[in-house]
Amino acid sequence: MFSMFSRPVEPNWQGLKRCILRQGAPERVYNIELFLDGEVQDVICERFGLLAGLDRNDPFFPHRKQVIIQSFLGYDFVRWSLERQEWPLNYDNAQDTAPLSRQSGRNFVNMHRGPITNWEEFEAYPWPDPAAASTAGLEWFEENLPDTMCVMGSGGFAHFAEHLTWLMGYETCCLALMEQRDLVEAIARRLTDYYVVFMKRLLRFDRVKITWGSDDMGFRSGPLLSPSDLREFVLAGHRIMAQMSHDAGRPYLLHSCGNLDLIMEELIEDVKIDAKHSFEDTIEDVRDAKKKYGSRIALLGGIDVDFLCREGEQAIRARVRDTLEQCMPGGGYCLGTGNSVANYIPVDHYLAMLDEGRRFS
User: Fold this and answer.
1) Percent of the chain with pLDDT over 70
2) What DSSP state is assigned to residue 30?
3) Is pLDDT at 359 greater than 90 in this prediction?
4) Which of 161, 160, 186 is nearest to 174 (CA)?
5) How far apart are CA 155 and CA 137, in angstroms?
6) Residue 61 — φ and ψ, nearest 5°?
7) Global pTM?
8) Torsion over CA of 111, 112, 116 and 121, rounded to 10 degrees?
9) Could you give the maximum distance between any two Cα atoms of the chain, in Å?
10) By CB atoms within 10 Å of each CB, which of 66, 71, 101, 334 scores lowest?
11) 340: which residues sit within 8 A by CB, 6+ positions away?
12) Cβ of 76: how many Cβ atoms within 10 Å?
C-alpha cells in the first residue's frame, strides 16, 4: 500500500498558470485533474488522516476538505463553480461494479429521449437561472483559500454539446438536426445566453485565475455531431467563453473526450483554447499530441485510464517518466490521468503516478 510521497510540493498557482501558458520550462511538474471521484477522496483522506480535527457539521466542511486534499496531493487549485443549478434530465441507472462502488449505482443520461423533444417541451422546461445561482462557495474561497492556491472555475460549466444532446437525447438531437433544426438552434441559443451570464458571475471572483470548460464532443473515431453542426451550435459558444476568459486575463482550458481531429484547428485558431484535456491511448497518446500541438496550446493529463487500471506500479512509473521527458520541455504540460480519477482506478496506482511526478527533475 502506498504510504508516503517521496518529496513535498508547495502549491504555486502562478507557476501552474505560467506552465499552462507555455511561458518557459516549469521549475517542477504541475498536476491537474478534472475531478477525483468522491470515493477516491474519502479513501485518501482516511488513509492519511487528512480530516482530523475538522468539524463535519461546519457548513463549509466540503470547502475545507477540498483545500486539504488538493494541497496534500500536490495540486495548486481547487475546482469550484456557481452552485444550485438544476438541469432535470432523463437518467438510466446501473449497478456500480467498481472496487470503490457507490451504493446508489451509476447514473447515465438517456441517449434516446431527453426532456425536450418538441416546442411544447422547450417552453415547459424549468430552465435554471444563472443569475440566481449561489456563489457562497466562491465567496468562502475568496476569503479563506491560501494565497498559494487559486480557484479553477470549473464544474457544471460550458456543456454546450453535452447539454444539447442531454436535453434532447442524442438520437432525438440527431434527427432534429434534419427535421427540427429551429428547435436545436433555440436550445443552443438558450445555452449560450445562460453560460454568458454564468461566466460573467464566475469572473467577478479574483481567486478564479483559470477557467475550464467541460464538453464531450466525440467518441473513438470522430465527433458526435458533424463539424458543421459543431461550428454552428457548439464551438460558437466556446469561442465566447474563451474570449470572455481572455478579456479577464484568465486562460481557457477545454476538456472534451473523443477524437476531435476534424475540429482541432478550429479549437486552436478560432475558439482559441489555451489547453486541451482528455486523452485516450486508443485515440491519441498525449505524447503524440504534444509533438503536433505543443507549440500552440498546452496538453493536460494523458496517463491513460485503462493503463492505470491494468498495469502495475513499475510500468506506471516508467510511463509517467517517459511522458514527462517528452512533454515537459518548454512548458505546456501538466501531469494527470487521461480523463479523471474514477473510483475504478486503484488508488495506489493513482498515487504512484503523482509520486513519480514529484521525483522527476
Assistant:
1) 100
2) P
3) yes
4) 161
5) 13
6) -55, -45
7) 0.97
8) -150
9) 60
10) 101
11) 33, 34, 35, 36, 37, 305
12) 26
